[in-house]
Amino acid sequence: MPNFKFAKRIETLPPYLFAEIDRVKAEVAERGVDIISLGIGDNDLPTPEFIIDALCEAARNPKYHRYPSYAGLLSFREAVAQWYKERFGVEGLNPKTEVITLIGSKEGIAHFPLAFVDPGDLTLVCTPNYPVPPVAAGFLQGEVEFLPLYEENNFLPDLDSVSEETWRRAKMIYVNYPNNPTSAMAPREFFEKLVGICREYEVILMQDAAYTEVYYDPDNKPMSVLEIPGAKDVAIEFHSLSKTFNMTGWRLGMAVGNETLVKGLGKVKENVDSGAFEAVQQAGIVALQQGAPYTEQFRGVYRERRDAVLKALGEAGIEFVKPEATFYIWAKVPKGYGSSAEFVTRVIQEKGVVLTPGNGFGAPGEGWFRISLTLDTPRLMEAVERIKTL
Ligand SMILES: Cc1ncc(COP(=O)(O)O)c(C=O)c1O
Known about the structure:
Blueprint: H1 8-11, H2 17-30, E1 36-37, H3 49-59, H4 74-88, E2 99-102, H5 105-116, E3 122-127, H6 132-139, E4 143-148, H7 164-169, E5 170-176, H8 188-201, E6 204-208, E7 235-240, E8 253-257, H9 259-272, H10 278-290, H11 292-315, E9 320-321, E10 328-332, H12 340-351, E11 353-354, E12 356-357, E13 368-372, H13 377-388
Helix pairs in contact: 2-12, 3-10, 4-10, 5-6, 5-9, 11-13
Pyridoxal-5'-phosphate binds next to helix 5.
């Protein structure tokens, strides 16, 4: 038998922290325990019926059975540009050159560094954060420097602490607001400052906007980085229909912004994938054009869940960050546990509740855990009840 060796880029990946949790979860499930899984960020609510109808109709049209166009249907990209105008007031996006369709935003985020990162190029990445960007940059032998997100700085990176030399050397910075896992939002001043720095030092700004529609206060909506004047000189924003319209399984997203950055991503994609199913894009158009009232409804559901869980956590003496956006609660590991992993493992083993350990998103997440609000309120309440009795 040949001894096939993994490439070094796979072998040198950090140990997958969630694998241990999956192992414990499987053990607990074998004992017949009723497991409540609050680990994964996957909406439990179904995709609205009108979007499914649009897919069914489009799926019957042989026109969409062929290979999609690489950049995506122009009509989908036009709908994205229009949605950006209506939702964020971002005017004048050129759907032909400044918008590209993605097979979910993860695909775009993972592929983007292929277009711009050479071995040794420096990417700055906030941490704790969605783990895909540093892995993608690392695959290319890019250098990654982490910018820690701390509670005392409202989970924003301290841009002033980054040296001028680092800014000069940096090729790219990845930020994600509203943030997974901390649920923090970035204020306008933060984006203004970041855009200013990126323009000054010619740093590519990747902003991951997957959660802008999962917010709780209509008077304090998350913004797009493209609202900042001059952002288009340096920024590409990744967005998705996944969280906005409960379409995680459909795999549809978009990247929007600087023409060269969009073009580079497009060149990579031409060579590695063949685009998103056009019937799905057709349904995506309908979602973007008519989905706002449904998204509002979902926000109501998450708000109710959030408030119930926060109340119960408060009663249990567990400290947390009140989320302004996202369907995550970022909470502190109660005293008496050595680490996030120890707490999370005990909660699964003894109570059958799956949480995500904070350090799984990066070292500064140690001491924290994440709860996903992606189950109904009674189930969430039961989970907190069980945790209380640990
Ligand atoms: C911060 C963040 N960005 C991007 C994604 C990817 O979403 P999708 O590929 O479904 O668009 C996720 C998924 O959980 C996420 O949490």
